[in-house]
Write a structure and sequence with these properties.
Elements: E1 2-18, E2 25-38, E3 47-59, E4 62-73, E5 76-87, E6 92-102, E7 110-119, E8 125-135
Antiparallel strand pairs: 1-2, 1-8, 2-3, 3-4, 4-5, 5-6, 6-7, 7-8
């Protein structure tokens, strides 16, 4: 089944360390919480919460990222792993995601797809657009 969703993400914690091997090379651990902007409830019911933890390796604002997301619904949760790349000039991150576990009505979920993250209107705010296929 094809699914699309858009979330507003807010940074709740960010830790950065500079590598000092070249200018502006940093490693960051970022925690974000999200709420849906566009979302149609599925078999697991209404949205409850979304949290992700991401690791970024950036030089000059560009670089790789990877992480984990937990999305909780009224009747189950889905756990996903993702990886992507951020382009400093556009400030857009694109990548792929894949589920690795589900609970409740989502216990047998298998899914994967793509995502795009853009800068939001407020500081430490981002917009996540994701789409993909899943099966139960």
């Amino acid at each position: 089944m094809l699914r699309k969703a858009t979330y507003k993400l807010r940074v709740t914690r960010r830790e950065a360390l500079y590598v000092h091997d070249e200018p502006d090379h940093s490693l960051m651990l970022v925690e974000l919480e999200g709420v849906p902007l566009e979302y149609t409830p599925g078999v697991a019911g209404e949205f409850v919460s979304r949290r992700s933890v991401n690791f970024h390796d950036r030089t000059g604002g560009s670089g790789s990222m990877q992480g984990y997301a937990t999305t909780n619904f009224q009747h189950g949760s889905v756990y996903s792993r993702f990886e992507g790349h951020r382009d400093a000039s556009s400030k857009i991150t694109t990548g792929t995601w894949k589920t690795y576990r589900g609970t409740g009505k989502l216990e047998t979920i298998k899914g994967e797809g793509t995502f795009k993250v853009t800068v939001g209107e407020a500081p430490n705010e981002f917009i996540l657009d994701m789409e993909g296929e899943y099966e139960l």
